Amino acid sequence: MTETGQRFREFKMPDVGEGLTEAEILKWYVQPGDTVTDGQVVCEVETAKAAVELPIPFDGQVHELRFAEGTTVDVGTVIISVDTAPGGAAPAPASAPSSTEEGAPGSAAESDATAAGAPAAEQNTEPEGRQPVLVGYGVSASSTKRRPRKPQPGQAVPGRSVPGQAGAGAGGNNGTASPRPTAAAIQAELNGHTGAPAAAPPMAPSGGEPGGARPLAKPPVRKLAKDLGIDLAAVTPTGRDGVITREDVHAAAASAMAVTEAAPVTSSAPAPVAQPAVAAEGAETVAPGARETRVPIKGVRKATAQAMVTSAFTAPHVTEFITVDVTRTMKLVQKLKQDPDMAGVRINPLLLVAKALLIAIRRNPEISAAWDEANQEIVRKDYVNLGIAAATPRGLIVPNIKDAHAMTLAELAESLGDLVSTAREGKTSPAAMQGGTVTITNVGVFGVDTGTPILNPGESAILAFGAVKLQPWVHKGKVKPRQVTTLALSFDHRLVDGELGSKVLSDIAAVLEDPKRLVTWG
Fold this sequence. Notes:
It is built from 14 helices and 21 strands. By secondary structure, the protein is α+β, with helices and mostly antiparallel strands. Strands 11, 14, 17, 18, 19, 20 and 21 form a 7-stranded mixed sheet that branches. It has a 4-stranded antiparallel sheet with strand order 1-8-6-3. Helix 7 runs parallel beside helix 8 and helix 11 packs across helix 13 (498-513). The longest helix has 16 residues, at 246-261.
């Protein structure tokens, strides 16, 4: 590879999980001009499974951020380019592709090459003879498109000559590449100009601006305006660098409606309408005066919805319930909190419920299994990866504790504490949510008695732990106030019949009713 190809290196959105196809950029930790080193975290992205921090795999100076925060990007798409030789001489142009569409950074051709399994070196470096387009996400051009529109026949594009036109840099006859367009040139092209670019990116025009410049707006916003019958040239933009947002279109529609319904009309201009806060494309949208909010389905919420629908309509669910006196277990929790051997770990009722479930599975190992529809096989598992359903600001996730069956009570407590704290911080890795065998959902923390939980796809059972409440209970022949809870066990009836499911649930209840069984059965 030549020096030209080595100077500017590109970093593409990786597949940080199994089979993920896209991720949303939550936050950039660097800006153009910042120095980065190999292994430094440059951004945080949210996949369908978790929020993940991405490290850059080489040293250099940030040259370009291709996407804004809040943008969903396909796996394999370039998200950042780095100048590995900052301050050096600009690389000499080499032979360039014959058209803008072929080989342009982030083009479909490049994505196809990545999807086809291009070598890692090719995926992380700028192809030989290619210079990056100077468009940062803060420039209007990148807020609308990643590259200039394909030129129409006879239309001039900044930095390229149309065959038949005179001028230096025409690559059609001598094979010499023209320089890549600058951000200002791309901005001019997006605005509909075909001549030389202006010195600075022009702002999108408001209504009535002379020159006929094309208003800046993303395709979904243009479609919305068309559906509502709104002329974008008459819309006042509030987005960064003059980009028209969904809120701008809704505001214009509301203004137009107000003018139409008003009688008599006392002014040729509509009354000003308060503009909502500008939001990134794909964020929540609320039309002025509306009583509904539209929230895009994406990230963890989208993945959870798909998983629950798949599970509910694939695995035949059966749910059984049992109410149990857990007074002795609650007393044991308090004693363990004072035990020096358990110092430094979090002790709570969920810990003992988890241990009770693991003991029940050890006594009834057939429940640790999975249904392989493709191969028409039942997969018996001699291990337990214990999932814990966790409600986070981004939605429901189910990380699991690997090989929980082999852990002591103290080890299980430590792992459970780490799992919960990591989930609350939004740092759960995709690997931590793969390979689960059975799950616990602690609905009791919300004051709920019980529920009918839906299986996590690929798992055989899920246990709902309800709220522990002081209730009248017959104890040793007398009615006394006791601490009582209700457990619910949902299981895949293809794998688990009623007898096996009942035995597992009964064993869990027996351990919680008399926690001495943690020793005698454990």
